[in-house]
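User: Sequence recovery, please. Input:
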């Protein structure tokens, strides 16, 4: 992964980065005998300060869960970033210009940007559908669940109609390549060479964002009692790594900067713990 950025740049960046200051933004570090300690942010269940940061060595380590690494791996792990994204944050912080990426890496990041664009367009499309005539039943349902319009706006709820290709047609109309639409998981092809159709139909839609607030996936709540799945989520995609995504994490993190604790549920009902649909 690091191939596209010169090793020397990475080394310099690690050297220039204040690991205590950066980790200390997210974790409550206390100094004791040259080391900085805190509860571990990567495992739960105890109040012991098993997590330590060594500014001399430029590393962090938890002796309980054995999680450890340098300042880059901390950001990747803690903020669910990829390598380049973590490096970008540190470079900005250190006032260093990012080196030119090789053409292949550049193409890869353009491709990701394209997929993010598809997701953004989908969010807006579903929002408009919710407010259109075809979203009437969904709006009535939302009202019946006593969700205020400010919640609906804050969580950017939308509606996917029951038509087979509404979203697909809209995105194609925006000249998005078919393959990009499929790669976001928003649409799928029935079989080899078959027609492409929308994954989510007749559902109330809520976007899932990454820690930077970008749209990476959707959850959809079926309107019909007969739907095969009451809740349907996006599949894993180039943007959506289920193991590394936490619903509403981005806003939770900003809210957390002036709070001392975060309450979350990690079971299958997590989507519903924040927006009770
Ligand atoms: Zn740990």
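Assistant: Recovered sequence (277 residues):
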């Amino acid at each position: 992964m690091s191939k596209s950025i010169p090793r020397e740049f990475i080394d310099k960046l690690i050297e220039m980065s204040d690991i205590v200051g950066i980790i200390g933004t997210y974790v409550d570090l206390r100094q004791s005998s040259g080391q900085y300690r805190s509860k571990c942010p990567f495992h739960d269940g105890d109040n012991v300060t098993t997590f330590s940061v060594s500014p001399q060595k430029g590393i962090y380590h938890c002796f309980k869960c054995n999680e450890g690494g340098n300042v880059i791996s901390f950001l990747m792990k803690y903020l669910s970033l990829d390598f380049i994204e973590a490096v970008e944050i540190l470079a900005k912080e250190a006032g260093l210009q990012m080196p030119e990426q090789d053409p292949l890496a550049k193409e890869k990041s353009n491709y990701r940007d394209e997929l993010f664009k598809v997701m953004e367009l989908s969010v807006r499309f579903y929002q408009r559908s919710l407010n259109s005539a075809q979203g009437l039943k969904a709006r009535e349902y939302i009202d019946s669940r006593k969700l205020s319009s400010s919640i609906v706006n804050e969580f950017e709820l939308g509606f996917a109609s029951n038509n087979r290709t509404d979203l697909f047609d809209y995105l194609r109309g925006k000249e998005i390549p078919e393959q990009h639409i499929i790669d976001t998981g928003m649409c799928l092809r029935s079989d080899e060479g078959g027609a492409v159709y929308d994954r989510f139909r007749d559902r109330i839609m809520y976007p899932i964002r990454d820690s930077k607030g970008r749209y990476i996936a959707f959850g959809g709540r079926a309107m019909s009692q007969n739907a095969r799945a009451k809740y349907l989520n996006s599949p894993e995609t180039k943007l959506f790594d289920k193991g590394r995504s936490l619903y509403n994490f981005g806003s939770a993190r900003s809210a957390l900067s002036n709070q001392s604790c975060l309450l979350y549920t990690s079971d299958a009902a997590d989507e519903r713990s924040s927006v009770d649909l």
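The mean pLDDT is 85.
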